[in-house]
Amino acid sequence: MKLLFVMDPMARLQIAGDSTFAMMLAAQARRHEIWFCEPRHLALEHDEPMARAWPVTVRRVVGDHYLLGPQATVPLRSCHAVFMRKDPPIDLDYYFATLLLERARGKTLIINDPRGLREHNEKLAILDYPAFIPPTIVTREAARLRSFLAEQGGEMVVKPLDASGGFGVFHVRQGDTNTGAILEQATNLGRRWTMAQRYLPEVRHGDKRILLIDGEPLCAVLRVPAPDDARGNLHVGARAMSAKIGARDREIVAAVGPRLREAGHFFVGLDVIGDYLTEINVTSPTGLMEANALDNATYEVDVIEALERKIG
User: Fold this and answer.
1) Which is nearest to 208 in space by CA: 89, 294, 79, 304?
2) Could you tell me the residue range of the domain that residue 145 belongs to?
């Protein structure tokens, strides 16, 4: 297969924990042809989606992990699959990149589907499954956030709709003298929509990332926050621990997985705290390398094998 990875610059990858790099290595080991470009290298020639891309050879050597061949103009229809793996933010450049990728729908497999990437906000998407989420509101009004805080017994989490990696996530407690400043910051004085959810104390035992392949569970990893942080994001100090996919997790996957598959989302990360679904990550979900280390596995090979079966 010929696979194009649209992603951040190769030189910036932290290869020890990067899921995209692991998938590239697995595809290369299975003798697939892999190509690389950044979103800025996407283009249209009349109505034909193209990329100015490089064939790439990868290896797990820090500081010397890739070798690019000569850049060429690659029609996206010539690829068996295109991986859109640009990390957030989902800004205007990202939006336009999905519009260019949209022109390749039906001509090649795009992972994940560009229409779904645009329409599937990773915070708001959970609201499609109200039976599986904690009490949640979305508002720009600090006064409503204060009343919600009281309704939830004095603790809540607030998060922006347009950020990732734990940025802008606050654990808010009633009576904290910083509450007003936090809510002003969260809403940007009423100019930014903010999601608030009931605080789930189970987060101290870990925020579970469940990776799905074509709607089916692949693996899970528990991300335990640092003692001085409320967030379960690994890059801000959370600790990865082994996790099993339990009965409640399977209930959530059974409800969410088929709809994600129907929307064209091949590789997805669900975030589950206790019994509750808190986010659905479709842009550039991570966790493969941590799960590999904990389970003594090579889950990226499973991803590529599933892709081979899907393409046939």
Assistant:
1) 294
2) 135-199
pTM for the full predicted model: 0.95
**Does the active-site annotation cover 144?**
no
Query: Catalytic one among 122, 249, 271, 290?
Result: 271
pLDDT in tens, 98-133: 999 999 999 999 999 999 999 999 999 999 999 999
* Residue 157 shares a structural domain with residue 218: no
In the annotation, is 60 catalytic?
A: no
Catalytic site residue 123?
Answer: yes
pLDDT of residue 238: 86
84 near 6, Cβ under 8 Å?
Answer: yes
Q: Are residues 261 and 280 in the same domain?
A: yes
Kindly state whether residues 257 and 158 are assigned to the same domain: no
What's 81's domain CATH number? Answer: 3.40.50.20
**307 lies in some domain:** no
Query: Does residue 304 sit in helix, strand or coil?
Result: helix
Identify whether residues 269 and 190 lie together within a single domain: no
pLDDT at residue 60 in the model = 97
292 part of a folded domain: yes
Number of domains the chain contains: 3
- Which of 86, 209, 233, 290 is the catalytic position? 209
Nearest residue to 165 via CA among 255, 271, 262: 271
Sheet with 155-160, strands from edge to edge, namely 136-139, 194-198, 155-160, 170-173
Question: Active-site residue 239, yes or no?
Answer: no
Instruction: Give the angle 288-218-19 at the CA atoms, nearest 5°.
Output: 20
- Mean pLDDT along residues 208-225: 97
CB 104 within 8 A of CB 155: no
Residue 308 lies in a domain: no
